[in-house]
Design brief:
16 helices; two-stranded antiparallel sheet; elongated; alpha+beta; Arc Repressor Mutant, subunit A; 2 domains
């Protein structure tokens, strides 16, 4: 979720992009240096200044593929707390969960989402900005690919990447830079890989460091987004809006897997089942005041039939819906 008031980007990531200019022997113009001077006093870089920096970078280096080049130089340490948290994860799936949760610490200029089917996983990047969109998207995708290879000891093998924009260079150039094929004018900007790769172990896994860095990341995220709706509140709202949805569907709508949703809710000392039961009970009580048709209520709440609803209501309250209605009237 973006900080809609004043979105920012971490200084470390911003500086990494600029340092990559020297490593790639690209031009650091006076305009770039001027923006860097304006950025320096900020603990976190306002998105407007980040926009200005990218404009200056592209004007000084107008060649296609600039983002791919710069993204390949980003290291875990350039991602602030999130980088060290990623390094300490046990598996690639754990690292994916970390990215989905804590990416606003690195930058609030876009959102990461994850979708899965029976064979593959797609890590999607959805930018909020339009300034130098192509270059910045390509930088993010290149960063994702090369950092994931680094974290897994070069064992990560993406199937392909997708871009919403047209190819800026030849497909062979993209493949040389990314180490996999690229598809263009697609629905989303994403890295696609086989589900089996989620089990890849990370080379620097460290449970103690992970616990420590996660606490720091939680504190930083709360500081960035103090008014953000809790995950529990988001789940409740989705259940109210779509009572027929199960855990996996709700998790998908939140851009995560059912397993990740379970993990995140556990950190709020609850479970999906408890939340779903509480939400459906609250809705059931309201509906029982409005109608006597248990079949209609069962359908509205997503139960297979009236009997299933009655059994659930008895489990929740110790009485049948009819007994509740009678007690409510009395």
């Amino acid at each position: 979720m973006v900080n809609s008031g004043h979105p920012t980007v971490t200084q470390q990531f911003t500086k990494a992009i600029v340092r990559a200019l020297d490593a790639a022997e690209l031009v650091k113009s006076t305009a770039v240096i001027k923006v860097l001077t304006e950025i320096q006093p900020h603990k976190r870089v306002p998105l407007a200044l980040q926009d200005a920096l990218w404009q200056a970078l592209v004007e000084a280096n107008p060649q296609p593929g600039l983002g791919l080049t710069l993204g390949n130089y980003v290291q875990p340490g350039n991602l602030d707390i999130v980088g060290f948290l990623l390094l300490s994860c046990d598996t690639l799936e754990d690292a994916l969960d970390v990215l989905l949760t804590y990416h606003p610490i690195v930058g609030e200029g876009g959102e990461f989402l994850s979708t899965r089917n029976n064979t593959s996983c797609s890590l999607i990047y959805a930018p909020y900005h339009e300034v130098c969109r192509i270059e910045r998207v390509e930088a993010v995708i290149a960063t994702l690919v090369q950092l994931t290879r680094y974290l897994t000891g070069d064992n990560f093998r993406p199937a392909y990447v997708t871009f919403a924009h047209r190819a800026q260079k030849s497909p062979d150039d993209y493949e040389r830079k990314l180490g996999c094929s690229a598809r263009f004018e697609q629905l989303a900007d994403a890295v696609v890989f086989n589900l089996e790769q989620l089990a890849l172990p990370l080379q620097q896994a460290n449970s103690e460091l992970y616990s420590h860095m996660r606490r720091l990341a939680d504190e930083e995220l709360q500081t960035l987004q103090p008014d953000a709706q809790s995950l529990r509140e988001q789940v409740v709202r989705l259940i109210q809006d779509y009572p027929h949805w199960g855990k996996e569907k709700i998790a998908e709508s939140l851009g995560m897997s059912g397993r990740h949703l379970n993990r995140m809710l556990a950190r709020e000392n609850t479970t999906f089942k408890l939340i779903a039961d509480d939400a459906r009970l609250a809705m059931a009580k309201v509906l029982l005041q409005q109608t006597t048709s248990k079949a209609d209520i069962a359908h509205q709440l997503g139960f297979n039939d009236e009997s299933a609803f009655i059994r659930a209501f008895r489990r929740w309250t110790g009485m049948t819906p009819a007994e509740y209605q009678k007690m409510d009237i009395e």
